[in-house]
TrEMBL record:
Signal peptide: none
GO molecular function: ATP binding
Keywords from the UniProt entry: ATP-binding, Cell membrane, Membrane, Nucleotide-binding, Transport
SUPFAM superfamilies with a match to the protein in the record: P-loop containing nucleoside triphosphate hydrolases (SSF52540)
Protein name as it appears in the record: ATP-binding cassette domain-containing protein
Matching Pfam families: ABC_tran
Length: 292
């Protein structure tokens, strides 16, 4: 099995589209001219080193920050602020109001947006609490839960809203290795059952391969597109295989090696040049028959 550069999908409109997005903080550019499409049912991963702007891109998709240039759209409509069609699961464990029980936390956004009645919100909360494996903990408060359990509550709360896109900003980064693997398994199980659309941020190459079916590689600061890759052939079961290890090494090379040298060009042409550089890099990899 091999990693492949994604070809344009013809005739299918993306659910989420970012076009030429540049983000700035106080005059400092975080990303430059980033474009990508997320289709319904995708597990789309933004992967890059710390400081490349991947979390900023997710926040822009959520409507928390506005691009300095370019645009982001959901179902063809420009994103102008937060909305219930995009729900975020953050890395921090303190994203749950501590005075609310697990059930009340899951119900909270449903009631605040007045999407359903209190009775239906309670029923939906119990349904999703069960889906994430927390049945019996609905009356517990966050301070009594482990980090992994808190993240399950956050995921249940997000999915209960039935968003168009679930946005996850390094949600498992603060967990220990065993819990992180378990949460990756749980996320995969939920996706197999529900086929929701996921935009996922990570700086871990291994996690990107396990979680995503498509991966956007971003350069170090300011973040620019290095490549977009298909990765649907990998999962936790394949982690540790020779193909998985080769894919990990290949992505590392694209992020920091040959492609990184090739894209040292003027910002105005950085995006196009990076794409050509990555294609040359990938083509040479095929000729060498290095397993990718």
């Amino acid at each position: 099995m091999s990693l492949q550069i994604v070809s344009p999908t013809g005739g299918i409109a993306p659910l989420l589209r970012a076009e030429g997005v540049s983000l700035e903080y106080g005059g400092t550019r975080a990303t430059h001219d980033v474009s990508f499409d997320v289709y319904r049912g995708d597990r789309f991963v933004l992967l890059g080193p710390s400081g490349c702007g991947k979390s900023s891109l997710l926040k822009a998709a959520a409507g928390f920050i506005a691009p300095a240039a370019g645009s982001i759209a959901i179902n063809g409509a420009p994103v102008r602020g937060p909305g219930p069609d995009r729900i975020v699961v953050f890395q921090e464990f303190d994203q749950l109001p501590p005075w609310k029980t697990v059930k009340e936390n899951v119900m909270f956004p449903l009631l605040m947006t007045k999407r359903v009645s209190r009775h239906e919100a309670a029923e939906r909360a119990m349904h999703w609490i069960g889906k994430v494996g927390l049945s019996g903990f609905e009356d517990a408060h966050p301070h009594t839960l482990s980090g992994g359990m808190k993240q399950r509550v956050a995921i249940a709360r997000a999915l209960a809203m039935q968003p168009e896109v679930l946005l996850m900003d390094e949600p498992f980064a603060a967990l220990d290795a065993l819990t992180r693997r378990k949460m990756q398994e749980e996320l995969g199980r939920l996706w197999e059952e529900l086929r929701f659309t996921l935009l996922f941020v990570t700086h871990s190459i291994e996690e990107a391969l396990v979680v995503g079916n498509r991966i956007l590689l971003l350069s170090p600061h300011p973040g620019q597109v290095r490549a977009e890759l298909n990765s649907h052939q990998f999962d936790l079961a394949s982690a540790g295989s020779l193909e998985f290890q080769a894919a990990t090494q290949r992505i590392h090379g694209l992020l920091f090696g040959e492609a990184a040298t090739a894209v040292a060009v003027s910002p105005a042409h950085a995006g196009d040049h990076a794409e050509r550089a990555v294609k040359r890099s990938m083509d040479s990899g095929v000729r060498r028959n290095d397993g990718l």
